[in-house]
């Protein structure tokens, strides 16, 4: 059984950055309430609130656990209360995208199912990415989409 879920380092860094943005927005809200002069405070406050909201939604609604075993893909979103089981036969297509960044390689695997959407995995955010890639490549080689 292959279990792929977000890495602890990714979750930790997102939580720390969300907390910093949240406290920054509270600080600027306090500044605005004490002295409402200065448009730049409103702009910074808006940017921080927007960033905090986007990060919280990424943390809560983007958290997914993928289990692969016996030709089935179990996709579980714990904060959405959503769980689905897909057969490898229901896999419509899959594609791996590779991008070279500074000194590292970013790889993303997108699995598109025939009847119920898609799921994305990346090597920097998810554990056991290589195992999932090798399994999909072995079980569904004809459904790979070339760029």
Considering the chains and any ligands shown, give keywords for the structure.
single chain; 147 residues; alpha+beta; four-stranded antiparallel sheet; three-stranded antiparallel sheet; 41% helix; 30% strand; elongated
Percent of residues in beta strands?
A: 25-35%
Query: What is the strand tally?
Result: 7
Q: What is the CA-CA span between the terminal residues?
A: 30 Å
Low-confidence stretches: none
Helix fraction? 40-55%
Shape: elongated
**Biggest pleated-sheet summary:** 4 strands, antiparallel
**Gyration radius, rounded:** 20 Å
Determine the number of helices (DSSP H or I, runs of at least 4 residues).
Answer: 3
Mean pLDDT: 91
Explain what the structure shows.
The protein has 147 residues and is of the alpha+beta class. The protein has three helices and seven strands. It has helices at residues 8-34, 39-61, 129-139; strands at 2-4, 65-69, 72-77, 82-87, 91-100, 105-113, 118-122. A four-stranded antiparallel sheet has the order 1-2-3-4, covered by helices on one side. A three-stranded antiparallel sheet has the order 5-6-7, covered by helices on one side. Helix 1 runs antiparallel to helix 2. The longest helix is centred in the first third of the chain and has 27 residues, at 8-34. 12% of the residues are buried. The mean pLDDT is 91.
């Amino acid at each position: 059984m292959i279990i792929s879920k977000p890495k602890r380092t990714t979750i930790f860094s997102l939580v720390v950055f969300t907390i910093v943005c949240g406290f920054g927005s509270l600080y600027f809200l306090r500044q605005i309430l004490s002295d409402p002069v200065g448009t730049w405070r409103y702009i910074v406050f808006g940017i921080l609130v927007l960033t905090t909201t986007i990060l919280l939604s990424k943390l809560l609604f983007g958290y997914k656990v993928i289990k692969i075993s016996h030709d089935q893909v179990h996709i579980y979103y714990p904060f959405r209360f959503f769980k689905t089981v897909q057969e490898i036969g229901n896999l419509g297509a899959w594609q791996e995208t590779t991008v070279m960044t500074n000194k590292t390689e970013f790889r993303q695997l997108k699995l598109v199912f025939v009847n119920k959407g898609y799921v994305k995995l990346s090597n920097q955010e998810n554990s056991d990415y290589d195992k999932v890639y090798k399994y999909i490549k072995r079980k569904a080689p004809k459904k790979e989409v070339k760029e």
